Amino acid sequence: MKTFINKSWQFTSTFDKQLLASKKTDIKIKLQTVDLPHSVVQTPYNYFDAKIYQTVSGYRKTFKTAAAWKNRRVFITFEGAAHEATVYLNGQLLGTHSTGYTAFTYEMTKFLAPQGSENVLVVKLDSNETIDVPPFGFVIDYMTYGGIYREVFIEDKPQIFIDDIYVTTKENSCDVKFALSEQVSEGTQFNVTVAPWSKTKGKPITVSVAANRSTSNLHAEITVPDVKMWTPETPDLYTATVELVSKNKGESDSKSERFGFRDIVMNAEGLFLNGKKYKLRGLDRHQSYAYQGYAMPESLQRFDAKVLKEELGLNAVRTSHYPQSHHFIDACDELGLLVFTEIPGWQHIGSSAKWRKQAIQNVNEMVLQYRNHPSIFLWGVRINESPDDDELYSVTNSVARELDPSRPTGGVRCFKKSNLLEDVYTYNEFVHRGDNEGCEPKSKVTSNMKKAYLISEYNGHMYPTKMFDDEIHRTNHALRHAKVINDVAGHSDIAGSFGWCAFDYNTHEDFGSGDGICYHGVMDMFRNPKMAALVYKSQAEDEVVLDVSSSMDVGEHPACTRGKNWIFTNADSIKMYFNDIFITEYFPSNSPYKNLKHPPILIDDYIGERFVKEEKMSQKSSEQAKAVINFNAIYGQIKMPFSILLKCAALILKGFNYAKLRKLYDNYVGNWGGAASVYKFEAIKDGKVVKTILKGPVKNIQIKADISNKELSVENGWDASSVRLSVKDQYGNTVPYYMESVRFSLSGPIELIGPETSCFRGGYAGTYVRTTGKTGKAQLKVESADLSCNINFSVL
Question: What distance in Å separates the CA atoms of residue 661 and residue 672, rounded to the nearest whole number?
Fold first, then answer.
């Protein structure tokens, strides 16, 4: 039985041996009561020193020995403790675990107090970045935080128990391998059941397996008729349950693992899932959050996967640069989001035997703990962007392949023609500068054309972008992402690409924008979308996407030109209107991004047939005047090409002069002095209008709140909800230069994560609310200038 012990830990930011005392009255240092997941310190939004979380802290938890544990073995599991955890029970050392990104388990049986008596569990946690284990040893482009930041639970098991299940699949059959805690005698019976999980259709199938010799390793091959294959579009899942059959009460045991039927092949042509070729379209994710660092509960880990899949339209994510929460990966399994996960590290390979041994151990733990997740398609067995080290990486590859021969290995590099010991050449490519190719051909990068090639990072530091940057900067950021995925789509032998990165994140002083934030995300730290998010969202088909890169305010661009404004959509076409006058219809074929099914489309016509209808021009004169005016609308009057100059000359011969052309520009493009200047865009699918947006002068604004979860649970610890805020105009457009302060006030059993006063940045803001241990109704009030909104929650 699994029992979570996430509530009511005692914490001190400075470890002291007094924590080991059996009586709390013997402890003279001040202790704080905390619940898990926990961060050793709540950080500011920006401008803070990474040393504030680098400490040797202490955690203490008391619990009683349960009567149900009699004659059973008792274990404790920590899902994640950053970064070196030394664990004691009743003053006895259980062990030390030296990586912050994988789980670890210790047996407590022989150290437990008598039945009904109290036990003292103590964790000495070193969160310093001077530890001689990965990812430490040199500079790191992310904060590593500290704390017991994932869940902790106790399990009691019989003397002989099922220790591990590993499921591999092939077409409609699966091989369920299971390991026992120790050898069982010949003839010991096991039932192995494969059953559909959740909404997957089908009937459970059970087979019996008997040990034909004394062994601790067995397996069962099971054929499942009408099997549902796991794909990003149909993420069907199954559960494998192994039951140890015993006639003696208390000796039986069972264990379950969820899995999916799917076959992964990566070769020179790309990625094939169940025989179908997929082009990976993903982003890299850090597991960090504003204020709270790594320590967020299950609901928000799952919410991140939902954001990536449903709001950004991705089919893949890379867990840079370490294994991440099983809750996040579970959600990827359920949503159909392919995962590339890798061992902890950033560029540096340690020279000590301890460091290198730990890197190998990290591969072992990563593969054993995550190998039943069907969403994981690739193991990263190199330290991110590290140099070649054949001695180390031949071992890491060997470990991964031995523990899981069903998946390929990869290793992220930042240089070309590296020694390729893995199955996939994964490469961080930052070739695109905004005015050149989005990616290089595979042949210029990889050292082995016969193996698969994948771009694991692009953009990122090449063009940091803040929510409050001007419209041109935000547009260029979006187009850089569009250019890379467009050019990757044009290379059939590139398996896909992962953009750097999904979300902005706090980082060390050597990186970022000087305020402790890397503004590399297509979303901010609160998961509010930047314009670049539209590039990814528009590639998906689940919902209609329609937006425009501009507010359509003529003063937004230099010299009052309209500049290059773009439509982001997945519709068949877009009809554009000015003050309800039809201008033109745009199609994907009009876009320069020819390899994307749903490319950004340049708005290059502000006139349509208005010169013919309103100015009574001939069709030829209209086309000439329209070409001149539209060119000036986008580029201005500087360096007009010869073709435009010819049209100007033709118009002059017909009696047009500069003043008349200028008046046409002012009336039809500048729109100065008009009663209203409202642009309307209609998305057309299958001949029908499926979405409409309007862009015009702002008349009024209001706060919109997007809440990840309004029903919070305190069952296994604490719960939280993401509160994403934006200020919208009367048409539903975010007003990008709203920068006012925002104040939060609460009632009921919730509290804030972060300050009570913050501010909108580029029209967006955010906070988190968390439970306090009590249940009931709660409310968050949000106030900014004369705007406000109330958000109601239920704590169950």
Answer: 15
Contact 411/426 with Cβ under 8 angstroms? yes
pLDDT of 638 higher than 80:
no
Cα angle, residue 594 at apex, residues 534 and 273 outer, rounded to 5° = 75
Q: Alpha-carbon torsion 508, 513, 517, 521, what sign?
A: negative
**Nearest Cα residue to 786 out of 702, 676, 683:** 702
How far is residue 750 CA from its own chain's centroid? Answer: 26
251 is catalytic: no
Considering 151, 334, 422, 457, which one is annotated as catalytic?
457
Does 134 or 664 have the greater pLDDT score? 134
One-letter-per-residue 3-state SS of 428-456: ECCCCCCCCCCCCCHHHCCCCCCCEEEEE
DSSP β-ladder status, 173-184 and 215-223: antiparallel
With vertex at residue 133, the alpha carbon angle to CA 127 and CA 139, rounded to the nearest 5 degrees, is: 75
Determine how β-strand 264-267 pairs with β-strand 270-273: antiparallel
For the record, the structure tokens of 715 come out as 């069952």
Contacting residues for 35 by C-beta, under 8 A, at least 6 apart: 6, 7, 8, 9, 717, 718, 773
SS3 labels along 254-293: EEEEEECECCEEEECCEEEECCEEECEEEEECCCCECCCE
- For residue 463, the model assigns a pLDDT of 96
Distance CA 159, CA 106 (A): 15
**Closest of 116, 105, 153 to residue 7, by C-alpha:** 153
323-373 residue pLDDT tens: 999 999 999 999 999 999 999 999 999 999 999 999 999 999 999 999 999
For residue 552 the two structure tokens come to 């359509």
Report how far residue 360's alpha carbon sits from residue 345's, in angstroms, rounded to the nearest whole number. Answer: 12
- Distance (Å, whole) CA 425 – CA 382: 11
What's the half-sphere exposure (Cβ side, CA atoms, 13 Å) at 722?
A: 23
Tokens 């979303």 appear where?
523
Whole-number Å distance between alpha carbons of 474 and 461 = 14
Place of tokens 């090449």: 462
Task: Please give, one letter per residue, the 3-state secondary structure of 500-541.
Answer: ECCECEECCCCCCCCCCEECCCCECCCCCECCHHHHHHCCCC
- Angle among Cα 84, 87, 88 to the nearest 5 degrees reads 155
- DSSP letter for 234, please: S
Question: What is the dihedral angle through the alpha carbons of 314, 319, 321, 322, rounded to the nearest 10 degrees?
Answer: 180
pLDDT category at 17 given cuts 50, 70, 90 is very high
* Sign of the torsion angle spanned by Cα atoms 214, 216, 217, 220: positive
pLDDT band at 677 (very low <50, low <70, confident <90, very high): confident
Question: What is the rounded distance in angstroms from the CA atom of residue 156 to the CA atom of residue 302?
Answer: 28
Q: Which of 385, 471, 556, 682 is catalytic?
A: 385
Q: Which residues contact 475 (CB under 8 A, 6 or more apart)?
A: 531, 549, 550, 564, 565, 566
Neighbours of 637 (CB within 10 A): 15
Residue for token digits 């994640």? 80
- Model confidence pLDDT, tens digit, residues 248-297: 666 789 999 999 999 999 999 999 999 999 999 999 999 999 999 999 99
Active site residue 457: yes
Closest CA relative to residue 494, chosen from 458, 534, 561, 446: 446
Q: Is 180 exposed, middle or buried (0-12, 13-18, 19+ CB in 10 A)?
A: buried
| Helix/strand/coil for 108 | coil
- Where b means 16+ CB within 10 Å and e means fewer, 191-225 reads ebbbbbbeebebeebeeebebeeeeeebbbebebe
